[in-house]
Amino acid sequence: MLDSQPPPRIWWPRDVDTVSTELRALAAVGDLDLTLPGGGDTAARWAALARLGRRDLALARLAEGHTDAVAILAEAGRKPAPQALYGVWAARSGGTGAVLLDGVLAGTARFCSGAHCLDRALVAALDEDRRSVLVEVSLADARIAAVPGTWLPLGMDASDSPDVTIEDIAVTEDMIVGEPGFYLNRPGFWLGGIGVAAVWLGGAAGVLDEVLTRLSDPNAHQLAHVGALHTAIRSAEALLDVTASRVDTDPVGDHHLLAWTCRSAAERAAWEVLDRVPRITGPTPMCRDPRFAQRLADLQVYVRQHHAEKDLEAIGKAVLT
User: Fold this and answer.
1) 250 and 109 within one domain
2) Domain termination residue (choose one: 130, 164, 179)
3) pTM value?
4) What value does the mean pLDDT of the chain take?
C-alpha cells in the first residue's frame, strides 16, 4: 500500500490558506477522484489516502473528509455538487452536536475540519426520535459560522477544525441524504473509518521518512528503533491490504470488527513512531526544525480520533461473542 519512495515534501511554512490551495489543486487534476470503497480496488483508495498522510496530515485530513463525503453521497444514490469540496461534520463531543427538530437544523458542532475553506458539508444531526439524519448544507450560508478561538492546537492546526454554529436553517427534502439512520447504519460507515486509519498510517510513515533522511551513521540502538518502526508500519499496512481484498469480495458485509482492528493497528503503529522517533533523533530536530516538530505534533493530535481503550474493549467483546 505504501510506496517505496516518499512523496514530495509539503511546502513550508504551512497554514490553512496553503493547505486549501493545495487541496483545490489536487481536486482540479483529479487526484481526489478515488475509487469507491468496496468498488473493486479499495486497496488503491486507501493507498492514495496513505500517500496524502505521508505527505502532510492536515492536507490529508481535508482530502479524506472530501472523499468520504463523495462516497457517502454515492452510497445514497446522489452526486456531489460540481467542483465543490466537501467535509463530513459528525462529531458529538462534549454534549455538542447539531439537531434537526421540526424541519430546522441548529446547534454547535465540534471538529469541523475545513470550516473556512470548504464549499459544502454533510452534517450529522439528531432528529426528534434521536435518530441520526445527514443533512447537506452550503457553507456559503451566513447562518453557518466558525466560532473564533475554538481551534488553537499546535498539531493539525492547518486542518482548520473549529466549532461551528448553525442557526435555524430550514431543511428541505432535497437536503436530506438517505433515510434516518442511514449515516451510521450503512456498510460504508466502517469502510470510511478504515480510510482514516490509512491516513494515520501514512502520517506515521512520513515521520519515519524524516528520520531516515537524518541518519548518516546510526548506532545499534537507533537501528533497532528503525527496525521496530519498519515492522510496525508494514504490519499495519499488510492488515489493511488483506482487509481491502475482503471488502471488495463482500462490500456490503459486516466489517465492523475488521475496521476496529485496522484502526487499532494503525494507531499502535503511530504511537510506536511517536515513542521511538525522539529516542532516535534526540531533542535537536524537535527544537530546531519546525517541519519535523510539526509532523510529530500533527500525528499525535490526529491519531486521537481513535477511541483508545474504548475501541480495544469493543474488539475484545466482539472477539468473545
Assistant:
1) no
2) 179
3) 0.96
4) 96
